[in-house]
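Appendix C: a fully annotated inverse folding record. The material below is reproduced so that readers can follow the format used throughout the book. The structure is listed first as tokens, followed by the designed sequence.
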């Protein structure tokens, strides 16, 4: 799947802009504040319902406007009909369309467009809270494991109900038993999905990381499921009195985490900032490659301000790996990037200035 055409209306600086992308490398060049990152942000919002800049949903709408709209035409890469997707955000909520028809669930739109992203805040995958690492896993499972979304929703619903009961002065034990049973069933399945994905992800990441951080030595992934070794039903029962005292659930897949350890970097606290960035970039590229192996087509790859995040050697290594893949890549920079030799015909350059975009022919 790749984006043939993107239309942005009233997002941040943009009043209205339309871009025609190509497969391969699409480079958006412009000064800081020109709007180039907002183009990538629009793609990310269309694919995920949120900005990679964090929880800035209301700030996305252009000042003085009532709503933003993002629309894309997608080439499914398998010879089938072009798909048209769009989202709109007003002052209260999102709405979405596929091929011109309203859809009740935003997740229906998100399934149509898979996007991975590396940007200046991506180091949070290593340095940030476990929420970032769970989201990384769950994005992949949402796109490749059909049963995942139902299990995730079932667990979240039961978790909310259990937490609500824990806050009551007199807990209905029979009701608590029922919701814990639902939590345990959905949570165990959710954990199997996550564990299986990491087992497949590890060798792909190992190959990429060996090229980006050879000095770090052998890589290993470690998964913590969010409770001990006993069945989740038992863990919830044993934690019940403590959870009642504090008013929320302390064990379960919502507390899961995973970490990367290198032979010569035994914990994330020993990573330099540069090693964090390279490790995250390796994770993003490995996730894209595994997605392509699972689905038969690449996700769209977003790379924001790449030249400022990487030295010249790692920049060339990244571009070379992607240009010689089948990925569509959208990358921003304040200056033109070095195009990999022999791939000039796969690169398109856009100049962004004062929220206007001009394609270089």
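Designed amino acids, in order:
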């Amino acid at each position: 799947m790749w984006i043939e055409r993107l239309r942005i209306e009233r997002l941040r600086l943009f009043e209205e802009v339309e871009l025609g992308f190509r497969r391969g490398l699409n480079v958006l060049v412009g000064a800081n504040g020109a709007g180039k990152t907002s183009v990538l942000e629009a793609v990310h919002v269309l694919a995920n319902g949120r900005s990679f800049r964090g929880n800035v949903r209301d700030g996305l709408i252009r000042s003085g406007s009532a709503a933003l709209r993002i629309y894309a035409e997608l080439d499914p890469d398998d010879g089938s009909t072009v798909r048209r997707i769009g989202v709109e955000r007003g002052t209260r909520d999102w709405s979405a369309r596929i091929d011109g028809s309203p859809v009740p669930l935003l997740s229906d739109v998100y399934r149509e467009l898979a996007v991975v992203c590396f940007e200046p805040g991506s180091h949070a995958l290593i340095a940030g809270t476990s929420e970032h690492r769970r989201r990384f896993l769950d994005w992949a499972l949402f796109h490749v494991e059909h049963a995942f979304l139902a299990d995730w929703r079932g667990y979240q619903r039961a978790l909310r109900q259990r937490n609500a009961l824990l806050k009551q002065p007199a807990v209905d034990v029979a009701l608590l038993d029922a919701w814990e049973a639902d939590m345990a069933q959905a949570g165990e399945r959710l954990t199997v999905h996550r564990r299986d994905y990491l087992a497949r992800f590890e060798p792909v990441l190992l190959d990429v990381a060996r090229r980006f951080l050879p000095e770090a030595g052998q890589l290993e992934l470690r998964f913590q499921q969010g409770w001990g070794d006993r069945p989740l039903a038992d863990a919830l029962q044993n934690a019940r009195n403590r959870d009642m005292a504090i008013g929320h659930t302390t064990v379960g897949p919502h507390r899961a985490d995973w970490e990367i350890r290198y032979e010569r970097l035994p914990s994330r606290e020993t990573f330099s900032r540069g090693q964090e960035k390279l490790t995250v970039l390796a994770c993003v590229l490995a996730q894209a490659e595994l997605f392509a192996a699972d689905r038969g087509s690449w996700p769209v790859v977003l790379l924001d301000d790449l030249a400022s995040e990487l030295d010249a050697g790692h920049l060339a290594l990244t571009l070379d790996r992607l240009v010689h893949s089948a990925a569509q890549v959208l990358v921003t920079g304040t200056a033109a990037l070095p195009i990999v030799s022999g791939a000039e015909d796969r690169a398109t350059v856009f100049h962004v200035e004062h929220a206007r975009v001009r394609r270089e022919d």
